[in-house]
Amino acid sequence: APKPATPSAVVAKPASPAKPTSPAKAKTISPKATEDLQNAAEMGDHDALMKALAEGADVDAPDAKTFAPMHWAAKCGRPEDLSALLKAGAKVDVKNKAGVTPLIYAASEGWDDCVPVLLEAGADRALTTAKGRTALQAAEEKVGKVDAEEKPRFVKVVEQLKGGAAPTAKPMSP
User: Are 135 and 125 in contact (CB under 8 A)?
Assistant: First the structure.
């Protein structure tokens, strides 16, 4: 019986060298891939975004407008890009120079498909812009200004931000 235990111990050893590879890979940031990621995020090119992430882009690097890729994805209503960036380690509450977070952008644009993605990833609803506006305040302000066609999206975002927003997180708590 002791002999089968020896091969399994040998099999377990190759798994540990894989750990140092991950941090080393994360440290190797490609400036070209980072620029490609910023452009892909702004333009909404999901394939180019995925390619840049695979090539070692800095997932949180701001562009000349101080927008991180998460800002573009949230502002432009791209939940798939948000999910990919979050999976790659992007900061969910990254702020631009005006203090705007991805959640505030998604809320102010009425993206009812992006707000839940951000909330489920742990976005902080209480964060404010440099002018003191929260995501909820930004969405509530827009409800009264948008046309009848867009209004239901903003109403839904307000509801999401008031608490019904993270259905997967809520039932687990009690």
Answer: yes
